[in-house]
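Hi all, posting the design record for the shared folder.

TITLE: backbone redesign
STEP: 1 of 1
STRUCTURE INPUT:
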């Protein structure tokens, strides 16, 4: 899924064809798909599983997609919608950033990169690797080093429209959030040039359909989803 495709799903969810409200986070700590938090979180990441942001596997905390509570995690508010747009893990969307010389960035460095041929944000390049797919299969963003510079985003991909942005503090940890539901929001940088969406099950209100993060391109426990374009 491209970042713009994620944005399209997000806006459809907020149209008359969707639930038109903040979808419930999947807070299943086993990362099982299609679950919903029993109680809507009222705070973001706290690192201690407090009452305002409970996560786990028991039925008093999280319920599956085929229940009335489970429907709240669907983009349509019923079983026919798309699940897991908020938690339980970050999901890669296919994007690309160009360096100052208009070369595609492969990743952060020789240790943390995507395997695609390109330059590294910290210097050097990957010359033996995978070729990038055709440009129509990924969204492109300009070079930048600031995680708060959303001006490099595109209208329609659920980035620049999410402002204004601000810092919010949860359990003495400062996180940047958007004006849409307080979801976490960080833009890609030269050393973290790939976009992830949705957030972890531990993020509470920080995880959401408009949540955006950044990663270095290396292997991780992030997920992805396949889109069939007709």
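Okay, here is what came back for every position:
SEQUENCE:
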């Amino acid at each position: 899924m491209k970042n713009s495709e994620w944005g399209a799903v997000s806006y459809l969810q907020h149209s008359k064809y969707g639930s038109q409200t903040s979808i419930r986070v999947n807070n299943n700590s086993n990362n099982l798909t299609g679950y919903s938090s029993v109680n809507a979180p009222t705070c973001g990441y706290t690192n201690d599983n407090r009452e305002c942001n409970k996560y786990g596997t028991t039925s008093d905390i999280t319920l599956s997609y085929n229940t009335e509570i489970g429907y709240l995690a669907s983009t349509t508010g019923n079983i026919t919608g798309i699940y897991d747009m908020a938690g339980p893990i970050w999901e890669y969307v296919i994007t690309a950033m160009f360096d100052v010389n208009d070369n595609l960035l492969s990743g952060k460095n020789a240790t943390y990169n995507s395997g695609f041929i390109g330059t590294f944000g910290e210097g050097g390049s990957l010359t033996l690797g995978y070729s990038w797919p055709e440009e129509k299969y990924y969204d492109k963003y300009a070079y930048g080093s600031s995680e708060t510079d959303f001006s490099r985003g595109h209208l329609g991909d659920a980035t620049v429209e999410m402002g204004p942005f601000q810092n919010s503090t949860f359990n003495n940890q400062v996180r940047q959030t958007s004006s849409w539901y307080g979801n976490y929001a960080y833009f890609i940088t030269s050393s973290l040039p790939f976009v992830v969406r949705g957030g972890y099950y531990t993020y509470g209100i920080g995880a959401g359909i408009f949540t955006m993060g950044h990663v270095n391109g290396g292997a991780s426990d992030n997920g992805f989803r396949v889109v069939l374009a007709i």
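COMMENT: The helical segments are 3-13.
Let me know if anyone wants the other runs.
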